């Protein structure tokens, strides 16, 4: 879950929409008060925090987060219209993990979120496995029943996304946003082509990637 604290309704809604389209769960809040209320019941994986907020500003909120033991390590990306070096350094020195300078592109936001999550993720989670399929995230390798697979970067990223979210259905647009990390103009046929080649390389396990008619694709282990 990603929490977006932003007082501009249009920007906040676009951030939440883009993150959801990228396969992440996201929720938006217009100020620090509503954010802290939500924090009592849900612990997000990351917070995107605007500096200029009504009431308590983003830097004060960040300091509160860092002072509490249960949120001291919570990843935070600061978002601000201020682009001077002083403001960037101030945010980072206050405990921010990264920053975004407005106006920022939505795909830049997604990329920075993924980068911070990768850096802050558990060190021990270096391998993913579902049945006979295994990914070594550190070595960037994939295997099926112990046999190394020769995958392209996009095929590897598709398989990684599926294995991190077994049983979840991804639309073609969500796959484009996650794997290609850019707005794609034109046919989404490129997803179908890569899914086809990935299925072929997976051999007998290729049928684990199911087509959900009218929606997209998902990966489920079959007996």
Your description of this structure?
With 223 residues, this protein is of the alpha/beta class. It folds into two domains: 2-120, 3-Layer(aba) Sandwich (Rossmann fold); 127-219, Winged helix-like DNA-binding domain superfamily/Winged helix DNA-binding domain (Arc Repressor Mutant, subunit A, Orthogonal Bundle). Helix content is 40%, strand content 21%. It has helices spanning 9-21, 32-39, 58-67, 85-93, 106-120, 153-164, 172-180, 189-202, and strands spanning 2-5, 26-29, 46-50, 76-80, 98-101, 127-130, 133-136, 141-144, 147-149, 170-171, 209-212, 216-219. The strands form three sheets. It has a five-stranded parallel beta sheet, with helices on both faces. Strand 4, helix 4 (85-93) and strand 5 form a beta-alpha-beta unit. The chain starts with a strand and ends with a strand.
In a nutshell, what does this entry contain?
The protein is α/β, with parallel strands linked by helices and 223 residues long. It has 8 helices and 12 strands.
């Amino acid at each position: 879950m990603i929490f977006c604290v932003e007082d501009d309704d249009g920007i906040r809604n676009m951030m939440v929409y883009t993150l959801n389209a990228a396969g992440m769960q996201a929720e938006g809040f217009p100020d620090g008060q509503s954010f802290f209320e939500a924090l009592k019941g849900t612990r997000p994986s990351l917070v995107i925090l605007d500096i200029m907020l009504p009431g308590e500003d983003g830097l004060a909120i960040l300091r509160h987060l860092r002072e509490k033991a249960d949120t001291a390590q919570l990843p935070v990306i600061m978002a601000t219209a201020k682009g001077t070096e002083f403001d960037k350094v101030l945010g980072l020195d206050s405990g921010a993990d990264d920053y975004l300078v407005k106006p920022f592109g939505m795909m830049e936001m997604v990329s920075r979120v993924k980068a911070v999550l990768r850096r802050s993720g558990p060190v021990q989670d270096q391998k993913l496995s579902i049945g006979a399929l295994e990914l070594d995230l550190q070595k960037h390798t994939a295997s099926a029943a112990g046999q190394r697979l020769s995958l392209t970067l996009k095929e590897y990223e598709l398989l990684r996304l599926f294995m991190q979210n077994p049983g979840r259905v991804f639309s073609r647009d969500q796959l484009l946003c996650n794997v290609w990390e850019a707005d794609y103009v034109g046919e989404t046929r490129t997803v179908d082509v890569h899914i086809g080649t990935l299925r072929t390389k997976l051999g007998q396990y290729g049928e684990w990637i199911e087509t959900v008619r009218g929606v997209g694709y998902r990966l489920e282990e079959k007996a």
